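### Sample
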Amino acid sequence: MPDKVAPAEHQVLPPKAKEQSVKLKKELGLLDGVSIIVGVIVGAGIFVSPHGVLDKSGSIGFSLIIWIFSGLLCLVGALCYAELGTMIPKSGGDYAYISDAFGPLPAFLYLWVALFILVPTGNAITALTFAIYILKPFWPDCEPNYEAVRLLAAVVTCLLTAINCYNVKWATRIQDIFTGTKIFALIVIIGAGFWHLFAIGPENLINPMGGTNASPGYIAVAVYSGLFSYSGWNYLNFVTEELKDPYRNLPRAICISLPLITIIYVLANFSYFIVLTKQEFLTSTAVAVTFGGKLLGPMSWIMPFFVACSTFGALNGAIFASSRLFFVGARNGHLPNAIALINIRNLTPMPALIFLCIITLALLIPKDIDGLITYVSFVEAVFITMSVSGLLWLRYKRPDLHRPIKVSLWLPILFLVICIFLVTVPCYVKPLEVGSAIMIILSGIPVYWIFVQWQKKPKWLENASHNFNVSCAKLFMCVSEEKDD
């Protein structure tokens, strides 16, 4: 499917296109980097997966330990990714690192599952959560109508895709504004919870470790639910080429964002447990709304509003960052070249954004969010394990490679050991999800050999690929990225 865009396509473009350099610009500063990490992480997860963490861990105390552990694990992983991102300063995140360490086939397999599982499924979960929370006040005593939820999720996905196609600065300003809004929402939850603690007392916190489930498999699944709430900590690595002074701003953004988010998450869950009983917590499908309804009285409407703002910002950040992954994959010949084109007026990867939007819309049908979380988290853990293995392999294979940041060796080793545990142990707890994920990963191998590795493709396939790329270039007014001299 990869194909070079025909020279003829440039003839349909206006002369103005030749007056500027057509490439993605370095427009992201430190604040934008922090906003992307915080904005993507603080989204659906903190309002959806608290249920999963408590359900699998079995007790309030142990679930809080899981939240702390998940945050520290992500911080260690993010520090390892800071070394990878400054050593390999390319956009694409894990795709770029796996490619440099292990070659094109493993990198393609990551791209393959990211294309059909990781990114669009995560975006679909976030969009559905936005719709559920924004519609919750209209269905106060029952679940919102699922068709209305799905329609609203599709509308907001298309709206944010359009904004990202039109202007990078618009997308980053939206990210900054809604990041501030969601942090404020969590501060309201924390403040209200502690007010309740001092006014009523810790009646729900008696015997916090009662009912703890210490089975290794269930611990791993509980950690998956926690990690889902932190997912997105590596998204800034997807846009390294658009980050100003990445050698300084990438690690700084990581070191500011992850500790801040961990503290806020633990305090927010603590506040939930202060106000809600364990049974209320487990039976609620919208924990923050239940929390607000019980504590805030006539002001309880602000919780669905704030949660909707939070997921709106998270979806915007995920669309912005993840579209660059597919852009880089197409630029390297692992996807149709049309996805690596840049709009000449707005200098945005418009085809990649639209392609991601279409797949996300197709994944808005499933209703089992908890099942999707386990499914996505397992696949993500597999390739994060591979990326960190690549860091250790490159330390051995290419010791002289320039490393502006070099973390202590025990950090990637510790992170790798924990990731291996998270990948292997759940196999007997969730065999269906794990088996399905492995099959989808392996299904990318024949796709790679047919569409990427196979050099003597049939003429009809080459013509179809060429015509598709040229049609996209004309339709979206796009050209290939200009190379630096």
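The first strand starts at residue 341 and ends at 343. This sample (Large neutral amino acids transporter small subunit 2) is used throughout the tutorial notebook.
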